[in-house]
Amino acid sequence: MADPWQRAYDFAVEVARKAGEEVRKAGESEIKIMTKSSTVDLVTKTDERVEKIIIGSLKEEFGPDAHCFIGEESVAKGEACILTDKPTWIIDPVDGTTNFVHGFPFVAVSIAFAVNKELEFGVVYSCLEDKMYKARKGKGAFCNDEKIEVSDVTAINKSIIISEHGTDRSPEKVNKIFSTMQKILCIPVHGLRGSGTAATNMCLVATGAVEAFFEIGIHCWDIAAGAVIVKEAGGVLLDVDGGPFDLMSRRMVSANNEVIAKRIIKEIEIFPAVRDDAPVQKQ
Ligand SMILES: O=P(O)(O)OC[C@@]1(O)O[C@H](CO)[C@@H](O)[C@@H]1O
Ligand SMILES: [Mg+2]
After folding, report:
1. Residue 257 and residue 154 in contact, taking contact as beta carbons nearer than 8 Å
2. Phi, psi of 281, rounded to the nearest 5 degrees
3. Rounded-to-integer distance, Cα 39 and Cα 20, Å
4. Which ligand is nearest to the CA of 200?
5. Contact 98, 107 (CB under 8 A)
6. For the chain, which residues make up each domain, given as ranges?
7. Counting atoms of ligand 1 from 1, which one is nearest the CA of 166?
């Protein structure tokens, strides 16, 4: 049977490339920085403009009401962040906005597509490196059209692990994050890393450059596309407590295999994160 979402998948790759070109160009001129949830949660006009370009292109191609959208900047402006059974695009126009404003060379456009709450495909365009990562459910994962696979390492002490520290700098959370990192570092692992973009971090798991990436505090738009890419590259996704991965929970361990994932999970100090789909508190 023909793949019902092939056209959408191919179009997502085109749109991600176009969006990434916009981000790349915008990085060459002066960037006006604004903030969102805290003084270190940065956003720029480029994030907003590129999200509009992506959603506008998808609506033009598939019809204005055919699909639903969850976009980082639309949610920041008050749109709902609820994943239903309807075909839904999950978009982060600039993953790694802090990197973007500083010229730190990892910035990604992340576009995923879910139907019946199941991720069908994901596209991550690491636009400064010009690397197009993509994966379609059941059809493997690719970087610039070359098949990619997770590493086959099962020894945690031969691994590189990625985590990030996020934009919530409350001392209790920062303490838990660094305490977890310290424990993992002292297992010891070969190294700890962080690119500053969850989407790119997941692609690094998918290519086998690192064994795992975990984080509490990420959003669905940071990881939806990467989740398909990791899985299709042969990796695993789990919750930070070892339970099943839940896209809206803001907690995730992605790894090359369950042995590595479960060894990391032993060390993770869990702290609360408000779900992406939690009802918005009225003031
Ligand atoms: O706002 P942005 O640039 O899309 O989010 C960037 C980001 O670094 O924030 C998360 C929280 O630490 C990351 O892992 C995520 O990818
Ligand atoms: Mg992001």
Report:
1. yes
2. -75, 125
3. 26
4. 1
5. no
6. 6-147, 156-265
7. 12
Residue with tokens 């299709």: 232
DSSP secondary structure letter of residue 213: E
C-alpha span between 86 and 80 (Å, rounded):
14
Domain 156-265 class? alpha beta
Please list every protein residue whose CB sits less than 6 Å from any atom of ligand 1: 72, 92, 94-97, 164, 166, 196-198, 215, 217-218, 222
The CATH superfamily of 6-147 is Fructose-1,6-Bisphosphatase, subunit A, domain 1 (3.30.540.10)
37 or 146: whose pLDDT is higher?
Answer: 146
**Tens digits of per-residue pLDDT, 247-283?**
999 999 999 999 999 999 999 999 999 999 999 765 4
Q: What is the pTM of this model?
A: 0.97
Tell the residue number behind the tokens 């959408």, with chain if given.
Answer: 8
152 is in an annotated binding site: no
